[in-house]
Amino acid sequence: MSLLSVSGVSARHGLLTAVREVTCEVEEGETVALVGANGAGKSTLLRTLAGAHPASAGRIAFGGHDVTHRPAHRRTALGMVLVPEGRRLFPGLTVAENLAVAARRARPGPWDTARVYTAFPALEPLRSRDAVSLSGGEQQMTAIARGLLSNPRLLMIDEVSLGLSPAAVDTVYRAMDEISDRPTLLLVEQDLARALAVADRVICLLEGQIVLSAPSREVTREQVTSAYFGLRRAPA
Ligand code: ATP
After folding, report:
1. How many Å lie between the centroid of ligand 1 and the Cα of residue 44?
2. Distance between CA atoms of 81 and 95, rounded to whole angstroms?
3. Residue 57: how many CA atoms within 13 Å on its side-chain side?
4. Given strand 16-26, what is the order of strands in its sheet?
5. What spacing in Å lies between the alpha carbon of 39 and ligand 1's midpoint?
6. Ligand 1 centre from 36 Cα, in Å?
7. Any idea which fold 4-228 has?
8. pTM (two decimals)
9. Ligand 1 atom 29, closest CA
10. Domain boundaries defined on the chain
11. Which of 73, 101, 112, 120 is the most core-located residue (most Cβ within 10 A)?
């Protein structure tokens, strides 16, 4: 049984259908990159999976539970955790305080504050800094660390690289790469080369629909680019 099973899920913004009958599975332990052009529906899909946006059709099952109509906090309690676009740290709270808030509400599991500082050593000297004073990369690491502190089974990260310098992106991915027993990851990644390098599988959305889903090692960047721009419909 897949960890996440999505069948025929649609999601709307008013009259606009942003996600159209998406069907996909994510297996335990996989890293899946969700790619697609601006407006393809990536954020809406991730938010719908996390319960931050309602599905207008379809079914979402997680760990064998039908979560389609469960509120976000109950999905988090099952281990579905979203690191939203824009990082959404608590302004006015320090890095340590942002992490403490997550730790207080966490599911039981291997992640605690000490372990996140070990996984992201760059955060340790920033503990007392107000979260809003951090660089983009530092904020992204804090947001991912906060997600890990919830002890997710599935960590969904929206726009890992958005607004970050190449060096900051390297730091974030290197830190994630070095995490042992890391959770299943579903990442929105705009950088196709990076997506293919880090993910076991790539799912490409075009106008809310999956137009390609393939193991990263079995597709070329050109094939993903074609699917991305709708130049040629690759088999889904
Ligand atoms: P990007 O890479 O630019 O973040 P995306 O692939 O994440 O794009 P979404 O943000 O999910 O795409 O947007 C999908 C569609 O839904 C777009 O046409 C967008 O304009 C529309 N949309 C997104 N959020 C809203 C909203 N709050 N109200 C109305 N329309 C929205």
Report:
1. 6
2. 19
3. 10
4. 16-26, 4-13, 57-62, 65-66
5. 5
6. 12
7. Rossmann fold (3.40.50)
8. 0.92
9. 13
10. 4-228
11. 120
Which residue of 9, 10, 42 sits with most ligand 1 atoms within 8 Å of its CB, as the best mutation to test the pocket?
Answer: 42
**Which tokens go with 155?**
């960590």
Q: What is the pLDDT of residues 144-191, one digit of tens each?
A: 889 999 999 999 999 888 877 888 788 878 877 777 778 899 999 988
Structure tokens at 46: 């991730």
Amino acid identity of residue 214, one-letter, is A
User: Nearest to residue 34, comparing CAs of 174, 172, 214, 180?
Assistant: 214
Of 9, 12, 13, the residue with max ligand 1 atoms within 8 A of its CB, to mutate for a pocket test, comes to: 13
pLDDT, tens only, 50-93:
999 999 999 999 999 999 999 999 999 999 999 988 777 888 89
Judge contact between 163 and 136, C-beta under 8 A: yes
